[in-house]
Write a structure and sequence with these properties.
Length: 191
Amino acid sequence: AAALLRGAERIVATGNGAAYYVAHALWLASLERRFAPRRIPSHLDSERRPVFGPSGEVFVRAVGASGDGIHRMKEDGSEQQRVVPDAVGGLQSVSPDGEWVAVRSQSLSGEEAGGSLPVLAYPVRGGSPEKICEGCRQVKWSADGRFLYFSYIGMGTSLERHSAVTDLSKKAEGYGVPGIRIDGMDILAVR
């Protein structure tokens, strides 16, 4: 997994072992070849799904004896701290203000067969998570924080079966986020 820093020339990625349980290491590289790729030192056992925060800090999901959850650190590996200890799942994105992280849960929502994996927004400063969606993928905030984007690509469960709100452009209005309807296959319509 890898993440690009918006508006910059750096990328952070995990070195992937042959199996999922093999320890992953964080690497920082310059897209303009200004420096050689370098490993970000970490006390964590295994880092997965790195994401840049708004100030260039690195958010990562940690797995292992060092403590599961979402951790934050500077690019050089300093100031490591666990910011969301109870989040277990795939880190999706960080809000533009750095106050929320979107995590795809590993626990099915609902007890019925065919339940979907929810994506939850966890506050970085503590508190209860908010459910963003069930069964969605690729959750990202817009750069200005006004929009939250997610997709349901390749899903086998009908929207009517798992959501009370079937107009996806209206889904985030309960959180004060306006929605617009566009043709996602029209590159000129997507902003």
